[in-house]
């Protein structure tokens, strides 16, 4: 077996070198350092992964996604792709992109933005242990440079908390980063001390010694079989550029391929290799998930809210999660330790086996959600809107994974009141609007929050629901429906001179302004633009043609918010559009005081309408 592994390792190095040199770019040195680690995992009967998509397959994530030449070369050595295809690395239209993407069918999740793979692995391991109750393991290859990312340590903490003995990290300590030596260089003891202090089982190995590597994998799998409490990290000391003597442990070669004139020299240094040999991966057992565990009768189809009842949309969201779960048994709910504010705690109490507390670590929470989504679950991720913003990179990467994740940001806007600007989500709409194919929803009352939560569940993809801290009166009935891409025209007549578009908290300000202006015989049209992305374009076009002007009122910064969405949609219409938005740095105060201060209240709307009509 050892000789076969050595032969496969030489072949894999060959594939790495020829593919990156042919591409003229890539990260061969970072790939070469982990060859023995991954060759052993694949071909020494440790990973069970002999094909596509079986639920019981062991999962493999290259968190150090720049080592994609190694990733593709492993599958070439397994016979899954040809040498001809591996020479298409990084070409336009090739499945073998610069970092692992979903174009390549063996990719679990897209990687490349460092510090995210372990979080995704935690999500997959949680799924195996607590949801599907399958025996698969999740392996994550990490680089020593990315260990400087805080999200890695968030994942290390939560993996230990949930006793994920089915999660095995492989840390490739090759000393050299992109521009300099890494923080700890070859001090593998520093990594061991830190990681073990979080409750992980740790093993130090020579990352080029097949015997030591095999023993480490065997011990990690043995820990699982013995029901050990924690996950395992194999910490491997390796040499960057291993196998090419004039390249080994040399700075300045990160992200640089060998020039063509030096390729032959490098291949000669590999020693003899057989281009025809292929490795065999251990097959996975044919086991299916146990399935969901609802075992509870379905809830009422509609939420029971009475007109005029004061209900915070965040609470209606929590109630809706419980109501819809029997219809969507692949749901799971995650929260960043604010569940008594987002009201996801209502779901946690009803279905504790489907709820995972992620504590105050939002980047890891989104990564875990991606791992769960990759295993067929539909995560609802809840936190304050402003705290989701720190996880934008994880959300950005999730869009490339064809994921199915729902986000709920509560405490949006200045209307949260006394907590002040550090707690106010004022950039969240802009953030989620930038995500390709995303849906952005903003309910204004309990009924719309309930219905839009279910619309989010129906929709495949990334959905953001923006909820409000302040209680608002219920204005809709149980008969009302809220399709994605729709809106509600709540006040309309042939006398309308100006249209006021609101959403969430500002919709109620617009309705109050309508009543006060009506007393002066001034009529405005009021639209609840609950679907911010996609927009209800026909309704917007109709009102643009029937009224003199449009005022967009939003509890959000003007940049990237509702005004910009509406203005872009109506760029071909001959209508003046005005913006009332949060333009001043807010402070603590009563919600009504802050709405007045930012000039997004009913009085500000009235003032703007009168200015326009002058």
Distance between the termini: 87 Å
User: Which structural category fits the helices and strands?
Assistant: alpha/beta
Kindly state the percentage of residues in helix. Answer: 25-40%
Radius of gyration: 28 Å
Overall mean pLDDT: 95
Strand order in the sheet with the most strands: 8-7-9-10-12-11-17
Largest sheet: 7 strands, mixed
Uncertain segments of ≥5 residues (pLDDT<50)? Answer: 297-301
Strand content: 5-15%
Which of globular, elongated, flat, extended, rod-shaped describes the shape? elongated
Q: Note the total helix count.
A: 23
**How many runs of DSSP E, i.e. beta strands?**
19
Would you write up a description of this structure?
This protein has about 625 residues and is of the alpha/beta class. The protein has 23 helices and 19 strands. A seven-stranded mixed β-sheet has the order 8-7-9-10-12-11-17, sandwiched between helices. A five-stranded parallel β-sheet has the order 1-2-3-5-4, with helices on both faces. Strands 14-16-15-18-19 form a five-stranded mixed β-sheet, sandwiched between helices. α18 (about 445-460) links the parallel β11 (about 440) and β12 (about 465). Residues about 295-300 have low confidence and may be disordered.
């Amino acid at each position: 077996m050892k000789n076969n592994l050595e032969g496969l390792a030489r072949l894999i190095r060959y594939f790495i070198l020829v593919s990156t040199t042919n591409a003229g770019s890539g990260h061969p040195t970072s790939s070469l350092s982990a060859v023995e680690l991954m060759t052993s995992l694949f071909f020494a009967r440790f990973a069970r992964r002999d094909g596509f998509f079986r639920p019981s397959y062991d999962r493999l994530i290259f968190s150090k996604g720049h080592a994609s030449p190694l990733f593709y070369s492993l599958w070439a050595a397994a016979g899954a792709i040809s040498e001809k295809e591996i020479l298409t690395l990084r070409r336009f239209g090739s499945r073998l992109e610069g970092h692992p993407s979903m174009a390549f069918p063996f990719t679990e999740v897209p990687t490349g933005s460092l510090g995210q793979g372990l979080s995704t692995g935690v999500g997959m391991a949680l799924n195996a242990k607590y949801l599907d109750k399958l025996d698969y393991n999740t392996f994550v290859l990490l680089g020593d440079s990315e260990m400087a990312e805080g999200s890695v340590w968030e994942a290390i903490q939560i993996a230990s908390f949930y006793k994920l003995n089915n999660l095995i990290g492989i840390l490739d300590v090759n000393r050299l980063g992109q521009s300099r030596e890494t923080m700890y260089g070859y001090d593998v003891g520093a990594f061991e001390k830190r990681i073990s202090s979080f409750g992980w089982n740790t093993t130090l190995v020579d990352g080029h010694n097949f015997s030591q590597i095999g023993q480490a994998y065997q011990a990690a799998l043995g820990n699982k079989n013995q029901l050990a409490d924690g996950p395992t990290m194999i910490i491997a000391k390796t040499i960057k550029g291993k196998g090419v003597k004039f390249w080994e442990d040399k700075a300045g070669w990160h992200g640089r391929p060998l020039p063509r004139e030096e390729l032959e020299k490098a291949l000669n240094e590999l020693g003899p290799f057989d281009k025809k040999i292929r490795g065999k991966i251990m097959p996975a057992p044919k086991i299916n998930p146990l399935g969901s565990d609802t075992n509870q009768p379905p809830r009422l189809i509609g939420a029971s809210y009475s007109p005029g009842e004061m209900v915070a949309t965040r609470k209606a969201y929590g109630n809706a999660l419980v109501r819809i779960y029997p219809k969507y048994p692949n749901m799971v709910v995650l929260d960043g330790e604010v569940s008594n504010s987002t009201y996801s705690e209502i779901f946690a109490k009803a279905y504790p086996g489907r709820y995972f507390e992620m504590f105050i670590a939002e980047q890891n929470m989104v990564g875990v959600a991606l791992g769960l989504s990759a295993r067929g679950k539909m995560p609802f991720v809840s936190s304050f809107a402003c705290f989701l913003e720190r996880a934008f990179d994880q959300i950005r990467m999730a869009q490339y994974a064809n994921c199915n994740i729902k986000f709920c940001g509560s405490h949006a806007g200045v209307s949260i009141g006394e907590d002040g600007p550090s707690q106010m989500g004022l950039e969240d709409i802009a953030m989620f609007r930038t995500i390709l194919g995303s849906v952005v929803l903003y309910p204004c009352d309990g009924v719309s929050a309930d219905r839009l939560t279910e619309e989010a569940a129906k929709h495949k993809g990334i959905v953001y629901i923006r909820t409000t801290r302040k209680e608002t009166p219920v204005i809709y009935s149980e008969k009302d429906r809220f399709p994605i891409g729709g809106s509600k025209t709540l006040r309309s007549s042939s006398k309308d001179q100006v249209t006021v578009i609101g959403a969430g908290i500002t919709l109620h300000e617009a309705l109050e302004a309508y009543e006060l202006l009506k007393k002066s015989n001034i009529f405005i049209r009021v639209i609840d633009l609950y679907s911010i992305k996609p927009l209800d374009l026909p309704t917007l076009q109709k009102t643009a043609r029937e009224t003199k002007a449009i005022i967009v009122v939003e509890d959000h910064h003007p940049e990237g918010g509702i005004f910009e969405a509406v203005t872009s949609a109506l760029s071909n219409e001959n209508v003046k559009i005005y913006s009332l938005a949060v333009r001043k740095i807010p402070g603590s105060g009563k919600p009504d005081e802050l709405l007045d201060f930012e000039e997004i209240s009913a009085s500000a709307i009235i003032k703007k309408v009168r200015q326009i009509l002058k």
